[in-house]
């Protein structure tokens, strides 16, 4: 069946898990979305209705890719980020962020980068699906570079393409974006239901320009082997 003109089609899997939660969260009035995002990152950053975020509810449900989606990074920074991650971009995929928003961090334009999880099964181990050998090597090199940089801030990082890849590449991208000059707050969101979540920890933004927060069920950590959500 062909969708009617003016309609938006969703896949079945988008009506469950963290994907649905993020669409529900951003399917509100801009002032409510901005206030909620600010509540997650205050006092380290704040969001206003003048900021830009993706997705924007069910009307604009597309998730952002930092190397491709305009409005979050400058064109030259998007190109640099893609070159850093992929040797041959072509049809190769880069991380889709559950939620991205511009914000203000210490009176500078920054970014909130959020990865959301609706239940523990979404934290299962995973690895890179890159088929191109040159891209695989480039990704491993980028993860290794980011691992060194994160360990300079707090020991214990071991970002890998072969274990907890989805978690690791988020930390890698957050570091690279900050290194290019855009301060970042990295969030891991653990949804208890469509609206409720609880802050576990949130760091101050470091001199390198990146801070990290972990959110989840009270008393239950979202931390995974080889990473730390706070610095």
Secondary structure layout plus pairing:
Blueprint: H1 17-26, H2 30-41, E1 53-54, H3 75-85, E2 99-105, E3 108-117, H4 133-153, H5 165-179, E4 184-190, E5 199-202, E6 210-215
Parallel strand pairs: 3-4, 4-6
Antiparallel strand pairs: 1-2, 2-3, 5-6
Helix pairs in contact: 4-5
Write up this protein.
- The structure is a single chain.
- It is built from five helices and six strands, in the order H-H-E-H-E-E-H-H-E-E-E.
- The chain has helices spanning 17-26, 30-41, 75-85, 133-153, 165-179; strands spanning 53-54, 99-105, 108-117, 184-190, 199-202, 210-215.
- The relative contact order is 0.15.
Number of helices, counting only DSSP H or I runs of 4 residues or more:
5
How confident is the prediction overall: mean pLDDT? 79
Shape: globular
Strand portion, in percent? 15-25%
Structural class: alpha/beta
Catalogue the unreliable spans.
Answer: 192-208, 211-231
How widely separated are the two ends? 50 Å
CA-based gyration radius: 17 Å
* Helicity level: 25-40%
Main β sheet profile? 6 strands, mixed
Strand order of the largest sheet: 1-2-3-4-6-5
What is the H/E string?
HHEHEEHHEEE
Number of spatially distinct domains: 1
**Structure summary, number of beta strands:** 6
